[in-house]
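Standup notes
- HV: blocked on the assembly model, inputs below
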Amino acid sequence: MAEGPARIRRGLRLNSEQWWMTSLAVLLAAELLYFSLGVQGFWGGGTGMLNQTEYFLDIGIMAIGVGFVIFAGDIDLSCGAMASFVGIVMAELWKQGVEIWVAALIAVLIAALIGLIHGLIITLFRLESLLVTLASQFILGSLATAIGGGYPPYGFPHAFTSIAGTGSVGPIPAQIIIFAVIGWFSVLLVHRTAFGRSLVLLGHNRDAARYTGVNVSWTRVRAFVLSGLFAGIAGIVIAATYNSVRDDLGDSLLLPAITAVVLGGVDIFGGRGHMAGVLFATFVLGFLYQGLLIEGISQLTANMVGGGVLVVALALKIGLERRGGGLSFAHRLRARFSPGGVP
Amino acid sequence: MTTAPSPSPLLSARPAGVGQRSARRTLSRLLAMRELQLVLVTVVIFAITTAHASTFISAGNISFLLADAMAVAVIAVGQTIVVLTRGIDLSVAPILGTAALAVGFLAQNHNLTPLEGLPLALAIGAAMGLGNGFMVALAGIPPIIATLGSLAIYSGVQAIVAHSQEVVTLPPAYFNLGNGDAINGIPYLALIGAGVAIAFALILWRTRFGRSIYAVGNNAEAARRAGINVSRVTVSSYVLCGALAGLGGLIFLAHVGSADSTTGTDSNIQLTAIAATLIGGTTLTGGKGGVIGSFLAAIFLEVALAALVEFRLNPIWEPAGVGVMILLAVLADPTTGRPSLRSALRMLLQSQRART
């Protein structure tokens, strides 16, 4: 903590982040209270509620991965297809007689390798990440179908499905422990290491990062490796939870994952936000989906509510930042879009 | 310019036919045009596939391919308008689905004719597009996030409109519109699609509104200082994209003959439309490209994928084909100043050496 003006500026920025986190916490508390009191079968003596997390922590793991990429100002649309692909690869390796944990490890490493390829293509050919990962999403989808065929293997060993999927330590589901470890690791990685600091810096201002001596391309590539890696882990967790794989099992996770990142307060143009917000937002969004589903609302309608929360939250955030003025993200947007000019 | 043959002062200012060199330059410039590239590649694919399976060039097959490509083609035209303003619209799939369902139900239960259904489909699409436009231009939400949210919201709307029912039986007028031929080999839908593409190409090239779309996409701040109402142009682009997605819904309904709560979203038609836009030469960074390229790219995609099937390639590779074509289309763009594979590798080696 520096003294003087630097400290004041730093304090202000933290406050805006803290303000966002507090809103998320209030939202989460209100949501849990509402569903626990109003919906039969949600509370379940506390453990019931904890067990609900099994249905959405895979979203959180994927969100962390996409989060790295978004911090750097890029986007990864291939995560969903990557998770499906990794599940299929693991299952097929296992069917060929490979030990299940080894198969999982190999599959996740392949995902990281594909992430590396994404990063290299994007930085070397100076292509937009949206475009490359969109193309890759199509390609991975085909590969998953081709490898898995119509009837991919299922019925994995019990040790695997319980540790990575539905097991629990006392009342705490195993998935929460996995998520906590991964979450802790990623928060430290983004906010306490040189790599994380340069990641956020280059998302904030790529030129400034370059002049500071950050190897911009390599840092972006590493973010894509992490994104692939985490999408792969999410794919393994889904496979273990449902004790089966399918060539499109992970596809539906992509949009909720990006929603969680943005709801967590990370600027979609990169450079601003906190990884802990993403972890928080996963629970806000996940419990919202689960509560609505248990209430008997269809999946599509639950998604609709999730989309509404995303849009309203962002509109509020941007509106508030506009009032605050200054050289904020909203200020830039306003400069870009307002007809009458910047006030 | 690989992209739209927009009124290029360079091209028109040059005196016509000053010797062979200028002719060659004109030829190379023509060959670099994405529209011409797409037509040539499509013709080559047609020739190769016909040599393999002679029925590929039959009037019936051409007619089917054109009609089948039109839903994506019309959406891609709308998507292009939004991408030209440096936006993106991920929500066109449920807009298409909702319009198809609404028209379909009325046709099924109340004998609504396609001509009466047209304004309804356009209005539904425009209203949903207006929602997107407001979120982007007035609330200031980045386009990719705003339309990600509306993708979820509009999918819910589509499910509510569907009400757990589906459209299965339509009046014969729809089948005729969606699968009939105006002339042998040219379906009605192709005429509609081509009409839409040409109309919007003219609007983009020749009207004040069209030019301001390019201006906003190139540099919104400069456009604002030049007196363009950036908000209004942005909102209009999303409204047009929505309306064309609604038209796409009507086309889809007429061609396929059914609709349900997941029509459009189940096949991720928005991604195919974005793929057609990118292959057509429009860049995600805005201000560069045109609707004719996207229209031709939709036809090219349809023909290329059908050709793969003729060559006994398993249809599961179709999405991969789309993905590879997106990458090839962008890498084959010579005007962007992107590094070639060789110089890219050299850069990689140098950066690694610099690190160690």
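- HV (later): unblocked. The radius of gyration of chain A is 21 Å. The domain at 24-296 of chain A is CATH 1.10.3470 (ABC transporter involved in vitamin B12 uptake, BtuC).
- Next: hand off to the docking folks.
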